[in-house]
């Protein structure tokens, strides 16, 4: 054991470490950091899972939520034992994060009334449109209030019994602590937030109540939503029952403080030090979204942009696309299968490395090829369902390099359409920070994203840890100096010595992606035809 390992072992054994858990679209991750040095990752654990498409709705079973959390936590504990030879018995703090939005509705006894409806569902078009007009604020299809109102419009029998609606992070947090609360960033994806109060907009709450009238739950919508907290506020303690849910072995003690539960957008902002105006980040996984902290309110309502907040409550313009890197991963899996069929062996990471490096040799506009990654519906471009497509014309240059560049461009295609709208609003971005597995191969996706956005793109050492690390940092922020706001805490205590690689946009990539995006926009008619015909 090295001196550093000895110090880490003491931190963990003495309960001075902080745990972050994030439930992402395909992985549940656990991350352990020192409370007084959250830039250092001590141990990690993870669990793979997938959503299900049942009764034409995307969902996860709640038993899978807890099986995955326990497995990820057990993997972290095993990592701690293997590295440091100690057990995890107590912690300085815990944070829980998860995919934002969606619909988890419970009755007065805490029983789930209908299967969890995730952010990925697009069946809420009527509700979202009505609420957007009523509120004068863009309410995307994935927002919790759109799901709730759509259930009202559809006269779903369960609506009369609804007594609590929350997000996935809010649900897990409530089970661990007994408290029905939510971080302001996650709450801002449930219902619009008033920038002055950093709480739900009271005027809009009243408008919703008048709209619903006596058709639904019989109580104000404000009583159905979790209480809103900002970063740094206490959000409860781990109960005995919560400790048993997290660690059935009984080793973990109750009484550990928790920070406000946050959404993956908020933890992405924290993980990329992007909580101040003129900063932004792109998070790429099953979905892909960009967040830009605003200097001033948007001049107009745009269906491509929704306004959420940082974990501290500052306004953020969000471009959220339901489809990210899943189709790219599927193609990589196809090539991996081909390699295996030849009798050779390459692991998934090696396959991605080869394919990504090949993309660098592609033509700036991907040789006339087009890739649509729409496995699910994509509201920004008006599709209720997805049909992944690869399209070429007879004179396109069909090479491996161009194919892979087209697929990487395709990951950023719909996002770029939304970001063009934000540009028209006059939003200024000094730097975009990117994180997610697609950026692990240095200098490829990062470079193409810089070309797509026409702005410098930074990737840091923490990119692969993502939101689990981000929520661990927010948990550590509970014990920070009260004089430090979240931005100062991140800059001075977390990222001061961080190694960050920044890539400026290459003019050829900018021009090439612009040409690709023009074809991409025109080719959406092909995607629409596929949705209609298949």
Mean pLDDT score: 94
Counting DSSP E segments of at least 2 residues, the number of strands comes to 24
Multimeric status of the protein: single chain
Characterize the overall form: globular
Give me the secondary-structure category: alpha+beta
Structure description:
The protein is an alpha+beta fold and 534 residues long. It is built from 16 helices and 24 strands. The strands form eight sheets. A seven-stranded mixed β-sheet has the order 16-17-15-14-22-23-24, sandwiched between helices. Strands 3-2-1-6-13 form a five-stranded mixed β-sheet. The protein is globular, with a radius of gyration of 23 Å. 52% of the residues are buried.
Overview features:
five-stranded mixed beta sheet; globular; carbohydrate metabolism; D-xylulokinase activity; 16 helices; 534 residues; xylose metabolism; seven-stranded mixed beta sheet; alpha+beta; EC 2.7.1.17
Question: Briefly, what is this?
Answer:
This protein has 534 residues and is an alpha+beta fold.
Q: What layout of secondary structure does this protein have?
A:
Layout (H helix, E strand, L loop, with lengths): L2 H11 L3 E7 L3 E8 L8 E6 L3 E3 L2 E3 L2 H23 L8 E6 L5 E3 L18 H11 L8 H10 L10 E3 L1 H10 L3 E3 H4 L5 E2 L4 E2 L1 H11 L14 E3 L10 H7 L15 E2 H8 L7 E6 L3 E6 L12 E4 L5 E7 L4 H16 L6 H12 L10 E3 L3 E3 L4 E3 L3 E3 L8 H25 L6 E5 L9 H9 L3 E4 L5 H11 L9 H9 L5 E4 L3 H27 L1
């Amino acid at each position: 054991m090295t001196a550093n390992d000895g110090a880490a072992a003491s931190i963990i054994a003495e309960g001075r470490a902080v745990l972050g858990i994030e439930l992402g679209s395909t992985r549940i991750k656990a991350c352990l950091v020192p409370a007084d040095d959250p830039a250092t990752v001590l141990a990690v654990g993870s669990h793979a899972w997938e959503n299900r498409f049942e009764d034409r709705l995307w969902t996860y079973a709640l038993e899978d939520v807890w099986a995955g959390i326990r497995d990820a936590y057990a993997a972290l504990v095993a990592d701690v034992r293997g590295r440091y030879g100690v057990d995890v018995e107590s912690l300085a703090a815990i944070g829980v994060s998860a995919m934002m939005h969606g619909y988890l509705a419970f009755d007065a006894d805490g029983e789930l009334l209908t299967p969890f409806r995730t952010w990925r569902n697009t069946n809420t078009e009527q509700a979202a449109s009505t609420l957007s007009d009523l509120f004068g604020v863009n309410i995307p299809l994935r927002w919790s209030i759109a799901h709730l109102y759509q259930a009202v419009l559809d006269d779903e029998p369960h609506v009369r019994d609804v007594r609590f609606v929350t997000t996935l992070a809010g649900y897990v947090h409530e089970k661990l602590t007994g408290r029905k609360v939510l971080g302001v960033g996650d709450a801002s994806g449930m219902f619009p937030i008033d920038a002055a109060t950093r709480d739900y907009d009271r005027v809009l709450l009243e408008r919703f109540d008048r709209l619903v009238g006596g058709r639904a739950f019989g109580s104000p919508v404000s009583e159905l939503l979790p209480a809103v907290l900002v970063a740094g506020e206490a959000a409860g303690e781990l109960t005995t029952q919560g400790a048993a849910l997290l660690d059935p072995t009984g080793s973990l003690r109750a009484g550990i403080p928790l920070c406000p539960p946050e959404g993956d957008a908020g933890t992405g902002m924290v993980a990329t030090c992007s909580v101040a105006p003129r900063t932004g980040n792109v998070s790429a996984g099953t979905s892909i979204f960009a967040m830009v902290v605003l200097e001033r309110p948007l001049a107009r309502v745009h269906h491509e942009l929704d306004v959420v907040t940082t974990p501290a409550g500052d306004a953020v313009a969000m471009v959220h696309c339901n489809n990210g890197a899943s189709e790219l991963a599927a193609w990589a899996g196809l090539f991996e299968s081909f390699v295996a069929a030849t009798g050779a062996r390459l692991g998934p990471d090696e396959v991605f490395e080869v394919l990504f490096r090949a993309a660098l040799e592609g033509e700036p506009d991907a040789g006339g090829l087009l890739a649509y990654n729409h496995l699910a519906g994509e509201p920004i471009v008006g599709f209720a369902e997805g049909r992944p497509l690869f399209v070429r014309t007879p004179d396109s240059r069909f090479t491996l390099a161009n194919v892979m560049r087209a697929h990487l461009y395709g990951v950023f295609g719909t996002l770029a359409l939304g970001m063009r709208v934000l540009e028209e609003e006059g939003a200024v971005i000094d730097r975009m920070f990117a994180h997610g597995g697609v950026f692990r191969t240095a200098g490829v996706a990062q470079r193409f994203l810089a070309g797509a956005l026409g702005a410098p793109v930074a990737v840091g050492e923490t990119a692969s840890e993502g939101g689990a690390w981000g929520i661990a940092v927010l948990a550590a922020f509970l014990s920070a100096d009260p004089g430090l706001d979240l931005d100062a805490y991140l800059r001075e205590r977390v990222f001061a010595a961080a190694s960050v690689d920044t890539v400026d946009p290459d003019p050829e990539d900018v021009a090439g992606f612009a040409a690709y995006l023009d074809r991409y926009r025109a080719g959406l008619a092909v995607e629409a035809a596929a949705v209609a015909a298949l």
